[in-house]
Every structure is written in structure tokens, then in C-alpha cells.
UniProtKB/TrEMBL annotation, chain A:
Family stated for the protein in its record: Belongs to the succinate/malate CoA ligase alpha subunit family.
Pathway: Carbohydrate metabolism; tricarboxylic acid cycle; succinate from succinyl-CoA (ligase route): step 1/1
Lineage, broadest ranks: Archaea, Nitrososphaerota, Nitrososphaeria, Nitrosopumilales, Nitrosopumilaceae
UniProt cross-references to PROSITE patterns, sorted A to Z: SUCCINYL_COA_LIG_2
Enzymatic reactions: GTP + succinate + CoA = succinyl-CoA + GDP + phosphate; succinate + ATP + CoA = succinyl-CoA + ADP + phosphate
Quaternary data: Heterotetramer of two alpha and two beta subunits.
SMART domains to which the protein is assigned, alphabetical: CoA_binding
Pfam family, one: CoA_binding
Every CoA-binding domain range: 15-112
EC number(s) on file: 6.2.1.5
Record: residues binding CoA: T28, G29, A30, Y31, K54
Protein name per UniProt: Succinate--CoA ligase [ADP-forming] subunit alpha
Keywords: Ligase, Nucleotide-binding, Tricarboxylic acid cycle
From TrEMBL, chain B:
Superkingdom per UniProt: Archaea
GO terms classed as biological process: succinyl-CoA metabolic process; tricarboxylic acid cycle
Keywords on record: ATP-binding, Ligase, Magnesium, Metal-binding, Nucleotide-binding, Tricarboxylic acid cycle
Lineage of source species: Archaea, Nitrososphaerota, Nitrososphaeria, Nitrosopumilales, Nitrosopumilaceae
Any one GO cellular component localisation term in the record: succinate-CoA ligase complex
Domain ATP-grasp, chain residue ranges per copy: 9-219
Protein's recorded name: Succinate--CoA ligase (ADP-forming)
Entries under InterPro entries matching the protein: ATP-grasp, ATP-grasp_succ-CoA_synth-type, ATP_grasp_subdomain_1, Succ-CoA_synthase_bsu_CS, SUCC_ACL_C, Succ_CoA_ligase-like_bsu, Succinyl-CoA_synth-like
Obligatory cofactor(s): Mg(2+)
GO molecular function: ATP binding; metal ion binding; succinate-CoA ligase (ADP-forming) activity
Length: 305, 368
């Protein structure tokens, strides 16, 4: 099982404990540079950028830019990379990162062809690397490290893990949690594509054994069956921590893609009803509105006291 | 995109999958010509991008001219699940011994391509019994795997050979065209033991369109969808009267749900996306102004990357240009939302602190 905290934080004996280096692929693009700045402001240790043809320059007069990921890895020793490149260049950029020894790859681009994602996952499996995304807002340990495009304001350090397919719902629901006094130990954006490098169930496995975890929030949406599979896992292992879910897309018409490539109901496969009933079976309440999530979570906590 | 049956069959034909003779037309004049070329009896099949055609009367047997003159216009005039006929396919009738099921699809939970086959086809996949399921990684189907499936299907002789051939060709087609689903249902065993694809369903990955110019002729988009795509936001038209605008697919879906829960009827799903600019939001409002059923606009923005002021500016410009004269019910939160609220203070936009309040006001406001 992937120890995601070890990758993101390290262990106390590491010289770079709590400041693991992160490489930004596509750091000179509009999107890449904006978010590289935001991540640096947040406290993420951005150690190198990669843009072919811009090697030797410096980003913001500080961060060295390299032509290849391999050079960036050789110079910085970083094992984490975040990708900001147009979807059609994602396959090349991701393979390059994995070949260079990256162990955690955060794949931001939307509209990556599924086939390319599958090819990247195949290589990641061989290399023992973790992919978050594509089409993800990223992953963060609030107040420690942010590898993604999420705004800083909704999040606060705490003891609730949040897993979400959607970016904006992750912000919206984390904001509601924070306002209600529920900080987050980790938030993971699964991504809105049909095929995810880290599935709901994989993300759950990453967070379920956090020693001081006080609760779990799952933000799903129509399409696929990752929520159902997660609910089944929760039943199977007898996971007892207070858990609340939210599912978007109850009112969506069938056979229409609702913005995200993965948000589509085919026949009965991927329907909100199927997800809600599976969560109910696992004794997990499903909120009707994002603002209801903290209320239900507080209720679950009282029950388990 | 989802191809129509005759388009899927064009691909099948190019890949050498056995088919009955068939011809697609859009007018009865064309149809008459095809009827002569094919000769009776044949089947008249409506071409719509949804299932359940047979039940809805969209597939009719045709034995002679009189039947043709009666049934062709009948089938062409049908609307099935809200979808009008795009074309009519005339296909030779055949003597069938048995109907099988075969598909390759992108298995989301296992993250690989998967074969589903069954000796009992001809019904919707949900009711297909005795399914044989085989995961095949990135979609390569070896001789050995194809033979194994044929054996599990209890096929022998020519039927088994044909099945192996069709399965491998279907897999090649799936991989090369980057399909999410390639389905032959029914795959029929004919009286002579050979196999024929009697129907075809083919859904490709829209995100791979840039690599498939050859498929673009099958692309079906309304002018509004076309313009939305060009401006980098996504729009799905619905049949209600309150346009729903927000940023992020999840948030917009969630807003649709809450609106529907409170008795409102969404007119569209409009995600301005993470790269929203004043221009792209203005374009979004232009598209909404073209939807005549819209009586009000519900806005739910959680500014992260997107500055809410960018959206506010687009609304002000749309009012100034008399582009929209609809009531707007907005909830703005996040980046620069205080400033955005200030900007919109004296416009027709009503600002609310919570999305629930904005929804209630929209539903009440539209009712009057």
C-alpha cells in the first residue's frame, strides 16, 4: 500500500522532512506559472521547473528551469512532479517523468485521451509510481504542502480526510467543513475522468489508517462505479470512522456527459441512485446539499461517541 | 461521440466485419432507389443515437412497395426518447439461427479494456444472461484469447472461426479509433453457420478527437454546443426555464440537483470552466440569450482560480449591450467576491449569501 504521507511529508529523520521537493512541468506556461507561484506562496518546496528549450533560465529569479525532467531530478533529487501541459502533450510529459524516477505524479490537464492515461498507468505500475488524476485539482496536506490548483482559503489543518472527483466541490465542501470547525488532514482530488490514476478506493486505502483520523468525506458524482466499490470496501473491512458522502448529478439526464468526461450515466451504470443506495447499505449518510455535509458529519460523530 | 448504426457499420465494413447489405437515406426518394437496389424483403431501421428502437416501432419489416410507401415515412417521422430520426437504414432481411452478444468496452473500475460476450444476445445488455467477461489490458486480443471466448460461447466449426475473426477485428477497430464502447448486438449465426453483425453501437472518446480527423464527419453538434466548445466552456441543453451557470462541472451538477429538489427546472448546464474570461462568459450569456425558453439565470460561483469579478464584468457588459434582460439570481463566493458583489449592486442581478437562497428566489421569481 502506498504511504502517501511518507511521499508528501517524509519521516523525521529525512533532511527534507516536511519540505519535500516538487518539480513543475510546464512552469513557464500561463497556467503553470500562476500555480507555481501559488504553490510557493502556500509553502510548497518547488525545487525545479521543466520547459523544453528554456533550460538555464530561472523562474521568479529563484527556481531553476531545465529542458528535461531527468535533468531536474538529477539536480534536485525530487520524487514528486506536477504536470501543466496541454492534454495532447500529457502522454509524453508523464512518460518522461516516470522514466526519470518520479514516484508521485499529479496530472492536472483536462481532456487527456483515455488511451493515453491507460498507457501512463501501465508504465506507472511497472515503475511503482502513483498518479493522481488526470483532470484533478491536486492533492494537499493543509498548511503543509499543496500540489495542485486549489485555492488556499477553504482549507485548514485538521483530522478529516476529503476525497473528491470534482475540484470546485472539493473547495466548496472543504470550506463548509472548515467553517464548521472540521479541519482536514489530507484532501485528494481523484479527477473527473473515466479512468483515474488513483481511484476512490485507492485514495481510501491511502487515508484509512491515518492514526488520528476523525472522519472521512467522500465527494462523488454520476458516472462509473467507484463510489459503489468504495462503499463495499467500507462494509468489508468494517471501517468505523464517521463517514459522510455527497453525490452530484442526481438531476442529470441519462446518456449526457455533464462537463467531466467521466460524468455520464449509461443505462443504469453510473447512476446517482445506485451510489446513494450503496452508501446507505454501508450506513453512510448522503448529503443532499454541500452545506449539509458538516451537519451530517457532526451527527455521525455524536453517534460514535 | 456516439455513432449512429449505419456509421458504426461503415467502420465495421472498413475493418472487414461481416455485414448484411444495407443503405442509408434521408429522403423517401433516396429510399426508393435503395429499395430497388436491395430488393425485398428488407428491414427499415430508424437511425437515432439511443437504444430501444425496436420497442418504439423504429424497426419495421418490409415485404413490398406498398408496405415501403406506408412504413418509410412512418419510421422517418418517429421521435424516440426525444431524438428525431437522423436517417433511415434499409437492410436485407436474413434467415437467422441464433443471436449472440459481443462487445468491447472501457472498464472504468478495472482500468482496462474488457470483452463481454454471451450466447444469448438480441436483448439490452442489462438483461444479457450468461455473460463471459474477459479483461484484455490495452485492447490487444490474441488468437488464444479469442479462441477461449469462442469455446466458452460453445461455438464450433465455421461459427467459431468467424467469431474469432470478428472479435479480433472489433478489437483492432476499438483500439485504433479509441472507442469507449464497440458493441455488436445481435451478432447472428446464419443458417449456413457464418456470423453477421446485425447491429452496431460505437462510442468514441471525445478527448481523442484531435487524432481522428477521419471521424469528424460523424460529429453531430448544435450551433450552441459548437460555440461553447470553441470558447472553452461546456454546455448541455436541458428543457427547463432556468439557466444554470457556474464554475466546475461538479458544482454546476450540484446546483442543478438543488434547483430540481426545490421544484425548479434547469434550462441548461453551463460550466464556464477554470479558464473563464470576461469574453468567454459574455459568449456564454450570448448563447443563453438564444435559448428562448429561459426566463431567468441562476449563477453559482466559487471563485478559486476564476475571479468572480471577471464574471461580474461580463454580466454588466451583457446588460449594457441589452444582450440579456433576464433576472439573474447569483451566489458569489471566493476570489474577489466582495468586489464582484459591489459591481453588480445596481444591476438586475440579485445577490444572495447562500446558493439555497438564490435557488429559492429563482424558483419563486420565475413562477410569477
Amino acid at each position: 500500500m502506498t504511504d502517501i504521507f511518507k511521499i508528501l511529508k517524509g519521516t523525521p529523520e529525512d533532511s527534507d522532512y516536511k519540505k519535500k521537493g516538487v518539480i513543475v512541468q510546464g512552469i513557464t506556461g500561463a497556467y503553470g506559472s500562476l500555480h507555481a507561484k501559488n504553490m510557493i506562496t502556500y509553502g510548497t518546496n518547488i525545487v525545479a521547473g521543466v520547459t523544453p528549450g528554456k533550460g538555464g533560465q530561472k523562474f521568479e529569479d529563484k527556481v531553476p528551469i531545465y529542458n528535461t525532467v531527468k535533468e531536474a531530478v538529477d539536480a534536485s533529487g525530487a520524487k514528486i512532479s506536477i504536470i501543466f501541459v496541454p492534454a495532447k502533450f500529457f502522454l509524453g510529459a508523464a512518460k518522461e517523468a516516470l522514466e526519470a524516477g518520479i514516484k508521485l505524479l499529479v496530472a492536472i490537464p483536462e481532456h487527456v485521451p483515455v488511451r493515453d492515461t491507460m498507457e501512463v498507468l501501465d508504465l506507472a505500475n511497472k515503475k511503482g509510481a502513483v498518479i493522481i488524476g488526470p483532470n484533478t485539482p491536486g492533492i494537499m496536506i493543509p498548511e503543509l504542502i499543496k500540489i495542485g490548483i486549489m485555492p488556499a482559503t477553504p482549507f485548514k489543518a485538521g483530522k478529516i480526510a476529503v476525497l473528491s472527483k470534482s475540484g470546485t466541490l472539493l473547495y466548496e465542501i472543504s470550506d463548509a467543513l472548515t467553517s464548521a470547525g472540521f479541519g482536514q488532514s489530507i484532501t485528494i482530488g481523484i479527477g473527473g475522468d473515466p479512468i483515474n490514476g488513483t481511484r476512490m478506493i485507492d485514495a481510501f486505502d491511502m487515508v484509512k489508517d491515518i492514526p488520528d483520523l476523525e472522519g472521512l468525506v467522500v465527494v462523488g458524482e454520476i458516472g462509473g462505479d467507484s463510489e459503489e466499490i468504495l462503499a463495499q470496501r467500507i462494509i468489508d473491512i468494517g471501517f468505523k470512522k464517521p463517514t459522510v458522502a455527497y453525490i452530484a448529478g442526481r438531476a442529470a439526464p441519462k446518456e449526457k456527459r455533464m462537463g467531466h468526461a467521466g460524468a455520464i450515466v449509461m443505462g443504469t451504470y453510473g447512476s446517482a441512485e445506485s451510489k446513494v443506495s450503496m452508501f446507505n447499505k454501508a450506513n453512510i449518510p448522503v448529503a443532499k446539499r454541500p452545506s449539509q455535509v458538516p451537519v451530517l458529519l457532526a451527527g455521525k460523530m455524536q453517534q460514535s461517541d | 461521440m456516439r455513432l449512429l448504426e449505419f456509421q458504426a457499420k461503415e467502420l465495421f465494413r472498413n475493418y472487414g466485419i461481416n455485414l448484411l447489405p444495407s443503405k442509408a437515406s434521408t429522403t423517401i426518394e433516396e429510399g426508393r432507389k435503395h429499395a430497388k437496389e436491395l430488393g425485398y424483403p428488407f428491414v427499415i431501421k430508424i437511425q437515432v443515437p439511443v437504444g430501444g428502437r425496436g420497442k418504439a416501432g423504429g424497426i419495421q419489416k418490409c415485404q413490398n412497395d406498398d408496405e415501403f410507401e406506408l412504413k418509410y415515412p412512418q419510421v422517418l417521422g418517429l421521435t424516440i426518447k426525444g431524438e428525431k430520426a437522423r436517417a433511415i437504414l434499409l437492410e436485407k432481411m436474413a434467415d437467422i439461427k441464433k443471436e449472440l452478444y459481443l462487445s468491447l468496452f472501457l472498464n472504468r473500475s478495472k482500468r482496462c479494456y474488457t470483452i463481454i460476450a454471451s450466447p444469448e444476445g438480441g436483448v439490452e445488455i442489462e438483461s444479457v444472461k450468461n455473460q463471459i467477461i474477459k479483461e484484455v489490458g490495452l485492447g490487444e486480443v490474441s488468437d488464444q484469447v479469442a479462441r477461449e471466448v469462442a469455446k466458452e460461447m460453445k461455438l464450433e466449426g465455421k461459427a467459431a472461426d468467424d467469431f474469432v475473426d470478428i472479435l479480433q477485428k472489433l478489437a483492432k477497430l476499438t483500439v485504433e479509433k479509441e472507442a469507449e464502447l464497440a458493441e455488436i448486438n445481435p451478432l447472428a449465426i446464419m443458417q449456413d453457420g457464418s456470423l453477421m453483425a446485425l447491429d452496431g453501437k460505437f462510442v468514441t472518446d471525445d478527448n481523442s478527437n484531435f487524432r481522428h480527423d477521419e471521424l469528424q464527419k460523424y460529429q453531430e453538434k448544435t450551433e450552441i454546443e459548437e460555440r461553447a466548445e470553441k470558447s472553452g466552456f461546456s454546455l448541455v441543453e436541458l428543457d427547463g426555464d432556468i439557466a444554470v451557470v457556474g464554475n466546475g462541472a461538479g458544482l454546476v451538477m450540484s446546483t442543478l440537483d438543488m434547483l430540481s429538489d426545490n421544484g425548479g427546472k434547469p434550462a441548461c448546464f453551463l460550466d464556464v470552466g477554470g479558464g473563464a474570461t470576461t469574453d468567454s462568459v459574455y459568449e456564454a450569456l450570448t448563447l443563453i440569450s438564444k435559448m428562448h425558453r429561459v426566463k431567468g439565470i441562476l449563477v453559482n460561483l466559487y471563485g478559486g482560480i476564476v475571479k468572480t469579478t471577471v464574471v461580474a464584468e461580463a454580466f454588466l457588459k451583457a446588460y449594457d449591450d441589452k444582450l440579456i434582460n433576464l433576472p439573474v439570481f447569483a451566489r458569489l463566493k471566493g476570489t474577489e467576491s466582495d468586489k464582484a458583489k459591489e459591481m453588480l449592486k445596481n444591476s438586475r442581478t440579485k445577490i444572495f449569501d447562500s446558493v439555497e437562497e438564490a435557488i429559492n428566489a429563482a424558483v419563486m421569481g420565475i413562477k410569477r
